Amino acid sequence: MSSTAESAQRAYDTLRDGGIVLLPTDVGYGLVACSDEAIGRIYELKGRPQEKACVTVANAAILDDVAVLADERLRVWIDQMARRTPLAVINRVRPDSELLGRMSAFALGQATANGTIATFLNAGALVSRIAELALADHRIVVGSSANLAFTGNNYRLADVPAAIRGSVDLVIDGGDARYENPERLATTILDLTTYEFRRIGIAAAEIQASWQAFSSSELGIAV
User: pTM value?
Assistant: First the structure.
């Protein structure tokens, strides 16, 4: 196996055993978990408000299972955009989702908000492989950035607070994040239930330009 595959398997084994993993993504270091206890610990470590949902580590197959798109033409745009840059999208929860149906009430409550779910796409080779392993095991991995709440992304492992680094079950050092930036921006989030950008982040100008062109020509939306 490649080092990425080995790291992904080690990370997924830890997640499946109920642990928290601190790992690199292209947009900064993150914390990921599967079990109720580990998800709860992420909130404690970050000082994150419980009402603020985590993001779902996703790929195209996971997105299809957990989300309902307001217009099926959006699926093509998401695929095309997510090949070019990291992207997070919010959609309505699919009522008959197999993956969500397997989650506990607590985990589901932290992965969704008001009937919607935020999916995190193209965040890097490591988390993409973890998403594949989870999908094969009929599980969902959720996560959040490895920083104290409201302080911005950390792009090097050494910048992650020591209290977080010392409290997780596995640490993976991937060097500097690909999209490191001085503003400490995170992934751009587009809410596809309202067609509004919920967060302006990495590659925002490119994503916004693509969305404007697509939505005006294909969906007839003035943005």
Answer: 0.95
